[in-house]
Design a protein that fits this description.
The protein is an alpha/beta fold. It has eleven helices and 19 strands. The chain has two domains: about 35-105, Sandwich (Immunoglobulin-like); about 110-340, Phosphatidylinositol (PI) phosphodiesterase (TIM Barrel), CATH 3.20.20.190. The chain has helices at about 1-20, 130-140, 175, 190-195, 215-230, 245-255, 270-275, 285-290, 295-300, 315-320, 330-340; strands spanning about 25-30, 30-35, 40-45, 55, 60-65, 70, 85-90, 95-105, 110-115, 140-150, 155, 160-165, 165, 205-210, 240-245, 260-265, 280-285, 305-310, 325-330. Bound molecules: magnesium ion (MG). Magnesium ion binds next to strand 10.
Length: about 350
């Protein structure tokens, strides 16, 4: 009898885990709290099929308005002295709870995305903790970085499929974390990156889901693990996603209906991307050279624009003038100077 109950409980757990693994996550369409604005609107609650949710807020400064948006209460505003983050919990009719972090919006909007972090002029390795630290210190809008799954399914950082002579996808995370990088760094995990970025509210992350060499399903698994970890660590306010793999982009969208996802491979029309609810394009600069109207066309479809990898001063000036939303570069120090002159 006991064994039957145990087996049933195990089966039920497995069913729950299976059901949750493919489930759209409860989200807000923004997690940022505007500063010095009484009663500011923060973000709309996006529920599964319009389910009702109630708000729990220990700080007692938030409410849900008639349109289903989280806002500050009517006479409440936050200022420079207020805390950087606030936790709220939403609960649905079935008792399911999810806690979010809302973040005071001091985020930098200078377009500068440090490609694999700020490494080139900083004596740091690409995709390292030091390159992330330098990105934050420089005051870039975001650090871009690349995520794979280790052989034991831990999201880890590397640009190439191999690092330190080991194939990332065929090596355990524990072994990967022992691979030395420049200046005392080691191969970092996505979790380390997320925890570090959450220590401040000026610079964000652009998380690239790498196309697995082990096939489509594995690539979707990278997307799953990345999105689940971002949500588990309540880091949604800090993270945008990019990928060359359209199925991975669709998988991110399936899990997170409000995530900012930019597509890297220029093999779909802007209309197709819009229809697939992709948020923007992040293309190699040659595509913007080929079609000088591309930024305008993307803007007309309400798609964000990002360009990589722009390392020459003249090109930087061109893309600043074209009005792209983001410029991804290995030379963030130079781009910062040019952007400041604008
Ligand atoms: Mg990348």
């Amino acid at each position: 009898m006991k064994r039957t109950i145990l087996l049933s409980a195990l089966l039920l757990n497995l069913i729950i885990v299976f059901a949750q693994s493919g489930k759209e996550l409860l989200t807000l369409d923004s997690y940022l709290i505007p500063v010095n604005k009484k009663g500011a609107v923060i973000g709309k609650i996006v529920t599964r099929q319009g389910e009702k949710v109630t708000l729990k807020d220990a700080s007692n400064i938030f409410m849900v308005n008639k349109e289903g948006c989280i806002t500050l209460k009517k006479n409440i505003s936050i200022n420079e002295k207020s805390p950087e983050c606030y936790q709220i919990t939403l609960q649905n009719n079935g008792g399911e709870k999810k806690t979010f972090e809302l973040v005071k919006d001091n985020f930098i909007c200078n377009k500068v995305i440090a490609h694999r972090g700020a490494w080139k002029n900083q004596d740091a390795s690409q995709n390292s903790m030091k390159s992330l630290e330098r990105t934050i210190e420089l005051g870039c809008e975001a650090a871009e970085f690349d995520v794979w799954l280790s052989s034991d399914n831990i999201p880890v950082l590397s640009h190439d499929p191999s690092i330190g002579g080991k194939k990332v996808e065929e090596t355990t995370a524990e072994e990967l974390f022992r691979i030395p990088l420049k200046d005392g760094d080691f191969v970092p995990s996505l979790e380390q990156y997320l925890l570090r970025i959450k220590g401040q509210n000026k610079t964000r992350l652009v998380l690239e889901v790498k196309a697995s060499q082990k096939g489509k399903e594995r690539c979707k698994a990278v997307a799953d693990s990345s999105v689940q970890l971002v949500h588990r660590l309540r880091a949604q306010a800090w993270v945008d996603y990019i990928t060359f793999d359209f199925d991975a982009a669709m998988r991110i969208r399936e899990l997170d209906p409000t995530a900012n996802i930019q597509y890297l491979e220029a093999d779909k029309s802007l209309e197709e991307l819009k229809a697939a609810k992709i948020s923007g394009i992040d293309y190699h600069f040659s595509h913007f050279e080929k079609d000088p109207e591309l930024v305008k066309k993307a803007n007309a479809q309400n798609l964000k624009t990002n360009v990589w990898t722009v390392n020459k001063e003249e090109d930087m000036k061109t893309y600043i003038n074209l009005g792209l939303d983001y410029i991804t570069t290995d030379e963030p120090e130079l781009l910062l100077k040019l952007v400041e002159k604008q």
